Amino acid sequence: KAKTSGRNRAVVYQEHMNEVLQLERTIEAELREALRTTDQLSVHFQPLVAQKTRKIVGAEALARWHHPKFGSISPVKFIPVAENSGLIEDLGDFVLRKSCALGAEVPGRTIAVNISTTQLRNPGFAARVFDLLYETGMRATDLELEITESILLDDEHVSAQNLRTLRSSGIHIALDDFGTGYSSLSYLRRYPVDRIKIDRSFVSQLSDGHDSVAIVQAIITLAHAMNIQVTAEGVETEEQADILGRLGNNTLQGYLFSRPVKADEIVAKFAGDPEVSGSRQVA
Ligand code: C2E
Ligand code: MG
Ligand code: MG
Ligand code: MG
């Protein structure tokens, strides 16, 4: 009996895997098509807010895909497919181009762009970023590239070289989703970064007396000791923002301030919040 149910379980698992693979192939084919005209694709921007002044100092670019039949598809679903299929090259280029176009329009504001590990492994990546900055007229110092901790484990020379080249031109590098991966601050000596973004999973637990307060405090203290700025992701309540302020956090991002919005809406938000001295000052 155990054998049969074991076999059945294997069959069910196999069927499930087939469905998953089929879905991935469908997403890949549809995304390939979407990238031909890019009509279904867009980039939204979520405000980055200075902790002390609560002014909008920049925005993070987030890819959006609206499929005519399937509706909105989350980047959590299509980014991994894009990475596994090589489509991330074209998609990443599209996002960077839109981000640089916005950045040129709003000098002095930081535009943060998520970069996949796959893109960084391309030897031509840094040159491509410089081309886009030149074409659009965006300043290098207004661009921030968000990479994930997985890159820190990547011994590949190419990624490290790209990061060094980009950084030496004044582009800032942020480590995204900090705390979810390997989080060894010792890696930060090998790949210097300007900012870490504390993952939403820590921020969402922030309340007085909770362990996560001590964790976030430790991250901020270490980061500042290494001259690294800190952004807290996924801030949804005034209590979280308040605790983060007490812990010395630099920049806030989350639904408490705004959801990601269209390019023209972020331009309007910037225009309505003009007194900005920049997001780079250390608290
Ligand atoms: P991420 O880079 O960590 O981006 C932050 C995500 O958190 C976004 O989800 C944003 O909408 C969401 N978020 C912001 N504030 C809050 C909040 O207060 N509460 C909650 N619950 N969520 C909040 P989104 O847009 O669905 O993107 C998910 C992930 O997909 C991103 O995480 C990033 O890893 C990836 N991604 C999105 N666009 C791109 C892209 O252009 N390129 C690459 N390589 N990855 C991208
Ligand atoms: Mg990000
Ligand atoms: Mg993040
Ligand atoms: Mg995150």
UniProtKB/TrEMBL annotation:
It comes from the Bacteria. Residues 24-274 form the EAL domain. This is Bifunctional diguanylate cyclase/phosphodiesterase.
